[in-house]
Every structure is written in structure tokens, then in C-alpha cells.
Amino acid sequence: MDKNLALAFLAVFVAACYYGMTRTSKGIHIPIRRVPGLDAIEEAIGRATEMGRASLFIIPSGGFDAQAFAAFDILGYVARQSAKYDTRIIVVNGLPEAHAISQEVVRQAYLAEGREDKYDPNDLLFLSGGFNAGVLGIYEREKIGANFLFGSFYFESLTLAEAGSRTGAIQVAGTANTHQLPFLVAACDYTLIGEEIYAAGTYLSRNGAQIGSLIAQEIGKYVSIGVMLIGSLYLTMTSPAVRSLAGKP
Amino acid sequence: MADKIGIYLSGFLILAVYTYLFKPGKVYDYVEHVYVGFAAAQAIILGWKNIRDAAIRPLQKGQWVLLIPIVLGLLLYARFSKKMGYLARLPMAFLMGVAAGVTITGVIVAQFITQVRATMLPLISLNNVVMVLGTASTLAFFLFIPLGKQRGAGREANGFSPMTIMSNLGRATMMAAFGSSYGFIVMSRLSYLVARLQFLLGPWIHIIPR
Amino acid sequence: MRRTVPLLVGFISGAIVVAKYFIANKALSTWGTNVISWRNIVAAFALGVGSINLIQTHLRKMARKERGWDASILLLISLVGFTVIGIAKGTTNPIYKWGFDYLYQPIYSAISSLLAFMITSASYRAFKVKDWQSAVLTVTAVIVMLGAVGVGSLLYKGIPRWSQWIMDVVNTAGMRGITIGGALGAVALSLRVLLGLERGYLGGER
Amino acid sequence: MPWYMRIQSISKTAIWVALVVAFAIPLIHPLGMPLNITSATTAAYNLIDSLPAGSIVFQSIGFNPAVDAECWPQMVAISRHFMSKNLKVIYYPYMQEGGMYAERIKDSVAGDYGYEYGKDYVILPFKAGGETAIAGMKDFYTLFNTDVSGNSIKDMPIFQGFRGMQDVAAIVPVTGSDDPVYYVRYIEPVYHTPIVACGTAPLLPVIGPFVASKQIKSTVIGLSGAAEYEILAKVPGSATGAMDAQSMGHMLIVLLVALGNIGLFFQKRAQKAAGVTSNG
């Protein structure tokens, strides 16, 4: 029984993915709601520019996974904004693989804004052991006006976000690691929660495969909300308490 | 005797780690590197034991098919060569592909169907109402593609559309969930220090009576 | 070629596992079991990759006398020494056990106990009520913190009960929403990997 | 500096000293604070207590030294309970370090109950692969052919008549990791084996939904769970003695959060009174 349901689920899911991909490849626009934290990014960079401070983007050492990929999409956006406003951007990576990709992402962003001359590879850092201490050093040395923390955070989120907030920077963060969300929510001005960082990545990259799978997930969510509510209402109507209230045996 | 020395030594090692709180420096660095070295040794040893018991010994008994994972495993090390590096993609793709397949078989029933089913509850008690509405609204918070045309746009801006209400309710539920998570994380982290102090004040300098 | 073959291998092996689950077939079942056990073997090979990386990095550090190269010596001694003992004599050997009990365990646990200090000072600074959301976060955190230990019931008898209710009902509702959403996300990601649409892990270009 | 700013700017060092003092006093002089035994720990205890002697329990060890402050006291208390009830125990290190902790049980606890290795309990080897290793357990003997030291498990008395996970009476992970969720995904739907999840405190919020849906039967959580279990199973251990210190630590943090917020509140009021508008 459960297996048949699972198979049906998978079939619908694959079909929805396929549908979404073909729609985007045909250039049909699919509306995705904007995530509030994304608007904050532009505001934060604007503020940093006014104050003549740099922005800092941190991708932690937690994992080279889907969260990191979403972080790259967001990094691309942040880098473009920085290039546009001519604000310095410092990027810190905790993983060597991520470092290689962020270099490419930032360079591309500067290229897209026609500011390749302003791209400085020395502002992209890879910190292996002692990630925490390294980032804290950057907070001390540089004047940071906007602080971005995206990716798979572990215990380092606590110290980094707290130290960042003391520099007076606007902080926008996001992770799908629920165990770290309390700290980020407490210490940052805007936090992208869980799925929001994937959606933000999709929103910014407009990647067909990602939009396709977003559509499939949306269907899953609508269906589960519907089943939950309708199922619960049905159970309420048929529950002995309500039946006796209605005077039925 | 070896244990006695060990206990004294570990007390000093713990204090060496705590120098980090005042100034991260040489002492902390040395101690941390010893630990990282041991961790890497552990990974190598356990990896080797796994390979020996699950692949090499059965291979010696004639299970030739095990050559496939052995070759794939060895190819992982191609990444250390500039020329052959691309060969490491093969085992990577295998690792990711199987993990993806396994996840699909596990998640749908246990984490989706069963969980949705468990949220169908008769709404005749406060707990059930909170549970159903809390779960549904948390899910609604994560909806990114609005249903239908943008008819309710005006109401949405005022924050009165059903979607906004649901999504705010979801936010509130999640904040409460994160708050309670936080409480439990505090409990966990503090106990790490309690245990170290128990050791330092107990077996190390014997202030805590047995 | 260099991308297609790996993606094909990933797809076929993953598809076998999925097919084994949905279709009752003897051949599929054997192959599915095989593929899963092979993955565990390949994963065992992967355990050494990080260590080789580590050896490379620290040898380089020592050769160039970079900052902290003296600590690298300690790392390599501990790495090589314990690897030799562990492989030659097994992990139940007294020397290896001693290393675990009196070097590794105390250092590792002490490092993680640094978090107790950090969480205390950071909670003090970070947990400020700025809006209704941080208010909900702070209030539930305080109730749960007090309810989890004896002092809560000394302050007020109801606290453990409230804390239990928050955990059992409100937290479960919130986390269940996240769990269901997470399941959908995991399936979507797995499908993208299987179908070769997510290939960042193959490295380099995206 | 006005008072409301001062209580918002206590130095880090002062806070850390206060923390150590708050812990040390009750450790040296126990205060005897009450310990509230939760229904979850009671349910976990009752489930294990009700297993008939001779049944096989499967303990998955998913912790390492980073979190052993919570998990090790749990593992000792629960193992003692197993052994006092004459249950046969399979220890499986889900994490690399798990084998060493099982080894400690072998050296200390097992002897107290006259438990014989291979007959009454066994230690399986760590398996690389994480989630896939647990998924592979459905074919038990494909995954495991030796014990932790490389000896063949086929001839061990404990495995006579043991077909696989279907013959396990309860899965009891002690963990700071995700393995309980993997047993829920791969073992529970197939064999409906009861799972009692024990582990670090942050585990509870994550597995809460599975407990509510009965996919996990009950939990033993954090140091307080360990202390409760020690009391229920009447096996005094280190957790009970640590709970007073834990209480004081929680008090300190609550106090600090309160000070910070009172300070902020009056700071805002003073700013309003002075007509300063704050934009953030």
C-alpha cells in the first residue's frame, strides 16, 4: 500500500519536474515569490557603499552540497550588486572545492557588469583549519558593512554571527541546518530559513532543472497541506464527540 | 601505571585547549594537531579494515565481482594526479548515484507519507489544532509559487490574504520550534563543560569526593 | 565522454536501487543488494582520501617552513604512529587504546566544550527582543531551558509542564513541517543527481 | 555609562569565570535539586524493561568525543539495564569512534554481569557509507561478515538462529548524529522494529515528529535523560551528580539574557525620551 503510494508520488514528481523544465526551456516565465531576505541584500550592500565599507560573504566548511550550490547562486547576485555599486567584496571559503567555484562565480559577476578590472582575486580567501579564528581576524582588520553567511553551518555560526553583529554590519544569513537556525535568527537582521535558500538560488539563477524540481516540490506541499486539512476535518466530523454533539449515534 | 600517567596528561591537555579562550596560540595549535592526526589515522585504519574484510578477503575466496568496487575505490585516488584526475569522477558519480537512489527509497514513505498521515487528527483538542495548523502553516511558509492568478494582490499587500496569515502563523510556529531547539542546544553544550570539570575536579585533582 | 560516462554510471547504479525497492524481482534484488554493498566498499576507500590530502598539505607546510610547520610535525607523528599501530596490531591494542583514551578523547572533548563558554557569552549578546519573532524565540528558549533542569520546577511548578507542551506540540508541529518539506527537497535533489542535472560534485565548471 | 548600558556590556571574561564558578560549586557541594523524571525516559525504560530475557537488542553508537559528555553516561546506564535484564546486545559503531566506546563497555560494565563476548554480546565493525550502511542492513550478513576484530561472526553463539534485523527486539541508538532517522527510513517500515532513540539534547527537536507519529517509540535525551535513566534503572553514574551544575548553568544564561533585554528595554525608553529616533 505504502509502496504504491510512494510510486505514484514519484511518478507525479518526475512529471512535474519535466513539465517545469520544458516550460522554462521554452522561455515561459514561472512566477516565484521573492524571498524577503533577498531584498535585504541590495539594501545591505547599498548601506555598506554609503559607509565606504566592504561586504563579506562567508561559505562555511560544512559540506560541498546543495546548500553550497545555492550559496554560489546568491554569491553571484551579491558580487554583481557589489560590482555595480563599486563596493569591495571579500569572500571566505571553508572548502577548497568551494573556493575554486567562488572565484569563477565572482569573476563572472564582475564581467557581466563590465567591471572586470575591479575584480581582485586576493579578496577571495580559502581558510582551512582555524576557519573561525580566520574570519574573526577579518572582522577585526577590515571594515565590514554588510555580512553574508550562507551554506551548511555547524557550530561556527554562533561565533561568526555574534562577532559580525558587533561590527555593526547588516547581516543576512541562510542555512538549511535547523540546528544552527536559532543562532542566525537571533543574531542576524535577515535569515533565510531552510528551503528558502534553495528557492532564492533558483529565483536568482532561473536554472531550468531547479525550477522544475521547485514546481514538483510545490505540488508536494500543496497536496500535503490539502490532505492534512481535509483529512483532519473529516476525522473531526466523524469523531464520536462531534457526532454526539450533532445528536447522531 | 600507564593509566595514571594518562590521567595526569589528559588533565593538562584539557587545560592546554582552554588556553584558546585567552589567546589562541602555539599551545592550542600543538594539541589540536595531535588530535587531527589521530582522527586521520583512525579514518585510514577503519577504511582499511572495511576494505580488507568486505572486499579483499571475499575476493581471495573467489568473489571476483568485488573487483568492481575495488577498482572504483582506487580510482578515487586519481584526483591526486593532474593528468588522470578526471577518472575520480567515476567513483564520485557512483557514490552520489547510489546515495540518491537509496534516499529516494527511504524518504518518501518514512518522512513524507507517514508524516502527512500522522498529521490527520480530529480537531477536538487544543493540541491537535495546534499540531495540524502549525504543520500546515509551516509548510505554507515554504510555498514559493502562488496558486492561480495574482488576484489577491491587493489583499496580500495589506497582509490579510489567507496565504499571508498562514505564512505568518508558520513563522511563529517555527520561531517557537527554534527557540526550544535553542534551549536544548544550550543544555547540550553546557554539559560538555560540566563533564570536563567533573574530570578535572575528580580523577585529576580529587576535589570531588567519590 | 569524461562527463557522460560518470553520469551514466551514477544513473544506472541509482536506478537499480530504486527499481529494487519498487519491483519484486530476484535478479534486481541481488543486484540492488550488490550495488549498495559496493557503495559501502567505495566509501571505505574514500575515508583515506581526506587523510592523504592532510598529509600532502602538512608535508608542504614543513618543506616550505610555513607558519605553524612545527605543529605539522606533531600531526604527522600522531597520524603515522597511530596508523601503523592500528593496522599492525588492531584498534584493541593497548597502545592505540591509550592514545584514544588519553590523547584523542580529552583533546576532542575539550575542544567541543569550548562551545559552552561561547554559547554563554553569545546568548547574552545575541538574544535581544527586537520584534515579535525574536520575542517568541527568546520566550520559548527561556521556558525550555528552565524546564529541562531541576531549577525550573523550583522557580515555578508549571514550568516543566509548559516546556514539555512546547516540545511535544509546538516544536513537533514546526519541525514536522520542516521534515515534510525536507523530504520533498531530498527527493528533488536525488532526482536531479540521478538524472545528471546536478553535477557540481563532479568538480570544476557548473 | 548609564546602568542600562552597563548591564548590556558585561565582559566575556567575567561571564566565563561566572560560568566555571557556577559549575564548580555544585560539583563540589551537591545542592540536591529535584530531578523531574520525564514521561519519555520512563517510556523508554519501560519498553526495554518489558523485553523478555534473551531477546536481542541492537545498540547503534553514533557519537564521538565531542558529544560523549551526554552519550557515554546514557550508554553506560542503558547497557547496565540491558545486562541486568539478561538481554543479548549487538553493539554497532555507526560513527568511527563508536567501536572504542563499545570496547570500554567490554572492559568495564560487561564483566560486572558476567557477560561473555560472542555469546551474550558482540561488537560489530564500523562500516563506511553512513546512510547507505544502514540501508544495507536489510541484508544483514551481506553487510556484516566479521566482528570488530575481523573474526567471522557466523560461528558465534549469539548469531545462531539470527536471520537479520527482523530478529532484533529493539533498536537503541545512542547518538549525536542522524542514525535514528535512518533506522526510521530503512528498518522500521520493513520490520516494524521498535526504536528507542537516545542521544544529545539537540537530537530531540529533530526526531520529535517521528516520536509523535510513533515511528520512534520513545527517547532518552541529553544529560538529564541519562540522569533520569540512572535513577530508573538504579545504576548510579556520573550524570546524576552533574545535574545540579547543569541547573546552575541554565540559570546563569537565563539571567544573562534577562539582563541584556532589561538593559535594551530601558535604553530604548531613554532614547525615546531624549527624542533620538533609531532606525535599526
Could you give a short description of this structure?
The complex is a heterotetramer of chains A (249), B (210), C (206) and D (280). Chain C is built from seven helices and no strands.
What does this structure look like?
Chain A is α/β, with parallel strands linked by helices and 249 residues long. Chain A contains ten helices and six strands; from the N terminus they run H-H-E-H-E-H-E-H-E-H-E-H-E-H-H-H. Chain A has a domain of 170 residues: Rossmann fold (3-Layer(aba) Sandwich), CATH 3.40.50. A six-stranded parallel beta sheet of chain A has the order 3-2-1-4-5-6, with helices on both faces. Chain B contains seven helices and no strands. The longest helix of chain B is centred in the last third of the chain and has 43 residues. Chain D is α/β, with parallel strands linked by helices and 280 residues long. Chain D has two domains: 60 residues; 198 residues, Rossmann fold, CATH 3.40.50. Chains in contact: A-B, A-C, A-D, B-C, B-D, C-D. Chains B and C meet through helix 1, helix 2, helix 3, helix 4 and helix 5 of B and helix 1, helix 2, helix 3, helix 4 and helix 5 of C.
Could you say what the CATH architecture of the domain at 36-205 in chain A is? 3-Layer(aba) Sandwich
Structural class of the secondary structure composition of chain C? mainly alpha
Q: What is the strand content of chain C?
A: under 5%
- Give the integer mean of the pLDDT values of chain A: 88
Radius of gyration of chain C: 26 Å
CATH topology name of the domain at 36-205 in chain A, in short, is: Rossmann fold
Let me know the largest β-sheet of chain C: none
- Bin the helical content of chain A: 55-70%
- Which word captures the global form of chain A? elongated
End-to-end Cα distance of chain C: 16 Å
Rg result of chain A: 22 Å
How many strands, what sense, and barrel or not for the largest sheet of chain A?
A: 6 strands, parallel
In angstroms, what separates the terminal alpha carbons of chain A?
32 Å
Beta content of chain A:
5-15%
Task: Give the H and E element order of chain A.
Answer: HHEHEHEHEHEHEHHH
Which word captures the global form of chain C? extended
> Percent helix among the residues of chain C?
over 70%
Count of alpha/pi helices of chain C: 7
**SSE pattern of chain C, N- to C-terminal:** HHHHHHH
Separate helix tally of chain A: 10
Total domain count of chain C? 3
Describe the secondary structure blueprint for this structure.
The complex is a heterotetramer of chains A (249), B (210), C (206) and D (280).
Chain A: H1 2-25, H2 36-51, E1 54-59, H3 66-85, E2 89-93, H4 96-112, E3 124-126, H5 131-141, E4 144-150, H6 156-166, E5 170-175, H7 181-187, E6 190-193, H8 195-205, H9 208-238, H10 240-245
Parallel strand pairs in A: 1-2, 1-4, 2-3, 4-5, 5-6
Helix pairs in contact in A: 1-9, 2-3, 3-4, 3-8, 5-6
Chain B: H1 2-18, H2 26-60, H3 67-75, H4 89-118, H5 126-141, H6 153-158, H7 162-204
Chain C: H1 4-22, H2 26-63, H3 69-89, H4 94-126, H5 132-147, H6 150-155, H7 159-194
